[in-house]
């Protein structure tokens, strides 16, 4: 009987996506493994998805598929808004969403607020294709508590994008109505916000909870969805709160160079399958 030789000295990174499901990737290099003031930071080189940033054991972004997430986070709301000149990004210290926001030539200033300066520095050093817009003159990158920042501004932004980590520890407050109310006050009269709201399969309670909290605050609340391979179950949701405008209507064309987002994808993303409609009925 033939036996396949076992490969030794293999190094794998594993994310426990639920108590019953894990995602493992073989890696060839550990670039950063440290604990910051706020979280454990692991940055590795994987064979399958390129360089990958992992915070507190949860995959945040990978070079091969990040465009799926970054483009949806940025272009859904920026293309739905008629004139997005000032944009706020909460979280997103890797810079992927910022890069996509600044593809829009009408954006005059994009303010990125991430609490962990170590994440920003690590991304600048090891994720150049993702963090490449941080030195753009229109980018204002600040390391501070987003909750404190939001409470200090009003009527300033056309669009706000909440690129938060999972709703645990210091990020839990970013999924609550009080925070969404502060964001609403920071928006102009026709402003809108978008938040990542997890997977309807592995985190249905987060999807429903976030939708409920946003719906308490905004007169127009909508959910859209798309593919995100390295996130739990590969399907991800985005929830939009809008003061006036229907976010499902694209008012501006997609910027040049996108790999996932198109005007057609924009429209299709708001077409919810029956199981997802039924889930939102709980909200």
Automatic annotation (TrEMBL):
Known EC number: 2.5.1.16
Amino acids binding spermidine: 94, 163-166
Known catalytic reactions: S-adenosyl 3-(methylsulfanyl)propylamine + putrescine = S-methyl-5'-thioadenosine + spermidine + H(+)
Family matches, as Pfam families: Spermine_synt_N (PF17284), Spermine_synth (PF01564)
Pathway: Amine and polyamine biosynthesis; spermidine biosynthesis; spermidine from putrescine: step 1/1
Binding site for S-methyl-5'-thioadenosine: 39, 114, 145-146
InterPro entries, per the entry: PABS, PABS_CS, SAM-dependent_MTases_sf, Spermi_synthase, Spermidine_synt_N, Spermidine_synt_N_sf
CDD domains: AdoMet_MTases
Gene3D superfamilies for the chain: Spermidine synthase, tetramerisation domain (2.30.140.10), Vaccinia Virus protein VP39 (3.40.50.150)
Top-rank taxon, per record: Bacteria
Active site (catalytic residues): 163 (proton acceptor)
Assigned GO CC terms: cytosol
GO annotation, biological process: spermidine biosynthetic process
Residue ranges occupied by any PABS domain in the UniProt entry: 10-243
GO molecular function: spermidine synthase activity
Keywords noted in UniProt: Polyamine biosynthesis, Spermidine biosynthesis, Transferase
Role played: Catalyzes the irreversible transfer of a propylamine group from the amino donor S-adenosylmethioninamine (decarboxy-AdoMet) to putrescine (1,4-diaminobutane) to yield spermidine.
Family: Belongs to the spermidine/spermine synthase family.
Subunit and partners: Homodimer or homotetramer.
Annotated protein name in UniProt: Polyamine aminopropyltransferase
Organism: Aminobacterium colombiense (strain DSM 12261 / ALA-1)
Gene name of this polypeptide: speE
